[in-house]
Design a protein that fits this description.
It contains 10 helices and no strands. With 156 residues, the chain is mostly helical.
Length: 156
């Protein structure tokens, strides 16, 4: 791992940074998790994705108050950092495959007809749920006819 990765916290302040992070090798991600994600890093991610603390807290199975009590450079425990990184990784995967961040942000919050418009984000609070969302992203990115048509129709 690069020396600068150990000295400075990675930033999640742009879509490009989130996509780049998603492509890191697992050892880099583990090092960041063990160091602990800061509240500032979570805020950067939150601002890029448009997620609210209430949604993030639900996905991490914690209270919203816990998130609000953290200050800028305070670090989350490794278990909490792992949950945050899993969410960041999922968004990076989605941004990378959709090639259209606003459409991805809309899709993950609204769903599609085949899933009865159940927002994929609602089942991202578990590992199997995140894996299913990744499979859906892959199918859309590889133009499974009905899902791809729905996502593209949403852009019109």
């Amino acid at each position: 791992m690069k020396k600068d990765m150990q000295e400075h916290d990675y930033t999640f302040d742009t879509v490009e940074a989130i996509v780049k992070f998603q492509r890191f090798i697992y050892l880099q991600k583990i090092a960041i998790i063990k160091k602990g994600i800061t509240k500032n890093q979570l805020d950067q991610f939150k601002n890029v994705t448009g997620l609210h603390y209430s949604v993030i807290a639900k996905l991490m199975n914690i209270t919203e108050r816990y998130l609000h009590k953290k200050k800028g450079h305070d670090r989350f425990r490794p278990q909490m950092s792992d949950a945050i990184i899993a969410l960041i990784d999922l968004y990076g995967y989605g941004y990378d495959h959709f090639n259209d961040p606003p459409t991805f942000n809309q899709w993950i919050k609204t769903g599609c007809p085949e899933k009865k418009y159940v927002p994929p984000l609602t089942y991202c609070d578990t590992i199997p749920g995140k894996e299913e969302v990744k499979r859906e992203i892959f199918r859309i990115a590889h133009k499974e006819p009905t899902l791809y048509q729905w996502v593209k129709a949403g852009e019109a």
